[in-house]
Amino acid sequence: MKNYNIAIIKGDGIGPEIIDEAIKVLDAVASVENVSFAYEEALMGGCAYDITGDPLPQETIRISMKSDAVLFGAIGGEKWDDLPREKRPESGLLRFRKELGVFANLRPAVVYDELVNASSLKPEIVKGVDLMVVRELIGGIYFGEPKGREGDKAYNTMVYTRPEIERIAHVAFKIAMERSKRICSVDKANVLDVSQLWREVVEEIATEYPEVELTHMYVDNAAMQLIRDPKQFDVILTGNIFGDILSDEASMLSGSIGLLPSASVGSKIGVYEPIHGSAPDIAGQGISNPIATISSASMMLRYALNENAAADRIDAAIQRTLAEGYRTKDLANYDAKEICSTSEMGSIIANYTVK
Ligand code: IPM
Ligand code: MG
What we know:
The chain is an alpha/beta fold. Helices cover about 40% and strands about 20% of the residues. Bound molecules: 3-isopropylmalic acid and magnesium ion.
């Protein structure tokens, strides 16, 4: 029996309710695979600020660093929007990523066959989409210095160094080797110096992976191509802010942002979280879709704990649940046979996980 310590950060808004469902599914999987989980909760975001005055208490970093992996819900909300920047929930999340050193954010966008009608694009455009955005997570314009505000002037700096680009490129190439051996690196090299360096370094790293076909695309074109013909992409390698934007766009191919998981990796401890936000407008109503978080728990089993059989069980259970027509409200209009609440959805998936 393998015992894993999981740090749980529920966060704000719908964070707690979706994490509860992921835990339900993890416990279900533990009852049939030879694993067990010990959870330790930690605070981050607005709720952490309310209690401790800091959106990222030191205790949260301590708990996370001694865990085997972090399962994370979502943070933020209007309530904290007017706080000074360093007190805002988002600043807590950015500091957290930086302190853990998770420089690689993996955001798969997969279109379930059962949900091809849910996309805002035509079914024939999205059917079969299966791509992975590899986003650099702790550099670029999110963190570059100098930054600041002087009256009516404000500025941020987009910086990447060679080692930062090299390490994220290696992650993307390794992933591509396990997939269909194609990478599209996205930048803005026609305008930005930082993108020119990005392109040069990615080209160099590519020579170490001769089997992988590398192409480059400007980010504006990539945004367009993603909705024109998403199936042309397999692995998309890009920087922090472009990856933030393109991964939200890619998520809509699948029909709901409530479906897609992510993994932030690159150092000892990985963080597994849905790509969506805390959706304070629907929090507490039992209508949020827990699938993105349950799927993140599956990524955690696969990438952090090497428990592939357990991850396969969860993925199959999600698939079956959708195939049988169970839908949360966000997908109610798409081939739904039964509309379920957040916790009903979690229970159905948990149930199919053990069967
Ligand atoms: C994401 C989010 C975050 C980001 C915010 C909440 C800071 O949009 O994880 O994509 O921009 O990275
Ligand atoms: Mg985002």
